[in-house]
Task: inverse folding
């Protein structure tokens, strides 16, 4: 019930410098579960923003009245990685020892925000739902922790895909839940949902 909403939400996107993606933003109005209306869109060219500083942007909504006020900071990623299974970041015994020392009891108060990190090996899926007319799917897997999101590549025409990827997330809240969702890539259309599992960090 507001024409001047304040969200104050922070989202972290892992942006790789070799990509030239635009950040697409949509503002929606929702009356109930069934009725939604697009109130406007805008774009941000991330490559044009200065690094290592917070940029305050007031973006007019295209073809609609109103504007969006945002703070965007482009900074080097820390603690986030995507790698193949054969070069797993925790596979080196000396690295594991360094991490054990970093999170030992005596170092607990050295950096209060550095709670730890989560490493997830996404191996494969089995007997997925067939989303295509040919009885196959084009599955990829999305991992979300808080407002962090990473995803695998797509394995085409396969109901038993193997990704063999290792994802590392910094943990910001020990009460967060890791959500792992499998989607079917569908060209320019939104991906089809193939299944989901939720894993509370406190259960690990």
Result:
């Amino acid at each position: 019930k507001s024409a001047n909403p304040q969200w104050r939400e922070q989202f972290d996107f892992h942006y790789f410098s070799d990509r030239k993606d635009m950040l697409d933003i949509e503002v929606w109005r929702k009356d109930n579960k069934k009725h939604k209306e697009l109130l406007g869109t805008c774009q941000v060219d991330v490559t044009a923003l200065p690094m290592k500083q917070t940029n305050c942007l007031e973006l007019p909504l295209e073809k609609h009245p109103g504007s969006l006020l945002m703070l965007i900071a482009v900074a080097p990623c820390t603690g986030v990685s995507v790698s193949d299974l054969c070069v797993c970041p925790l596979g080196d015994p000396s690295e594991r020892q360094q991490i054990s020392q970093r999170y030992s009891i005596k170092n607990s108060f050295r950096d209060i925000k550095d709670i730890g990190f989560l490493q997830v090996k996404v191996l494969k899926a089995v007997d997925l739902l067939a989303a295509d007319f040919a009885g196959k799917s084009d599955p990829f897997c999305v991992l979300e922790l808080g407002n962090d999101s990473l995803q695998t590549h797509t394995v085409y025409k396969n109901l038993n895909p193997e990704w063999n990827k290792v994802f590392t997330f910094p943990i910001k809240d020990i009460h967060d839940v890791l959500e792992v969702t499998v989607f079917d890539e569908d060209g320019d259309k939104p991906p089809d949902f193939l299944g989901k599992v939720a894993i509370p960090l406190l259960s690990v």
